[in-house]
Amino acid sequence: MNAAATPTLTQDELKTLVGQAALQYVTPGSIVGVGTGSTVNKFIDALASIKDQIQGAVSSSEASTQRLKALGIAVFDSNAVPELAVYIDGADEIDAQGHMVKGGGAALTREKIVAAQSRQFVCIVDESKLVSSLGRFPLPVEVIPMASQRIARQFAAMGGTATLRLKDGQPLVTDNGQHILDVTGLSITDPLAFESQVNQWPGVVTVGVFAHQKATVCLMGTASGVKTITYA
Ligand code: 5RP
Q1: Which residues belong to the active site?
Q2: Which of 35, 93, 112, 120 is the most interior residue, by most CB within 10 Å?
Q3: Could you give all domains of the chain from N- to C-terminal order, each with its CATH number?
Q4: pLDDT one-digit tens code per residue, 58-96
């Protein structure tokens, strides 16, 4: 019989582990693409320990920009940097192919923009985010406010239920001045086709399925340590 049980890591500790592990993908002298969320906050904190070895970051949200700057990391405009070697971000769900659902922190549009200008997407998650098929987490969709009701009806026709995201009783306003619909009841069996389809609906700014900008690598925090998964 085991004398001592293996200590179980908390979700917060798993986030710290993967945030620190992501440093290995940051090359000296580079500008790093930085996502948004509680897991990325752990990465930003770790990045501060090597801030003198990098030029700085391109950020995916006002929240991450504030945290980066507070830690003394320079933040570059995405338009000033044609290409990034690596983008590091969390996810709300990730499947076995590296397709993700993102946007729980309402930063999906800028996240997709920075991901698109990066050669590699390193996704940092704890294992609770792994799904067999996307659709468990309510799908965030950033929309132009005047189109939200029509877009909600389009999701209803697919079997989904769209709810306007609120903050302090009012519609949440994104960094881009738009609204977020959270859609439940969807089973996203073909993420590439789904992303392409919904992106074409007038008034959709960004759908939170990241299939065209999927992860190239996932650092997954598990009970037995950080697992590295590489996708084709
Ligand atoms: C923000 C995001 C985040 O990456 C996602 O919500 C995961 O966040 P967390 O690391 O806090 O679980 O997409 O828009």
Answers
A1: 111
A2: 35
A3: 11-132+212-230 (3.40.50.1360), 139-207 (3.30.70.260)
A4: 999 999 999 999 999 999 999 999 999 999 999 999 999
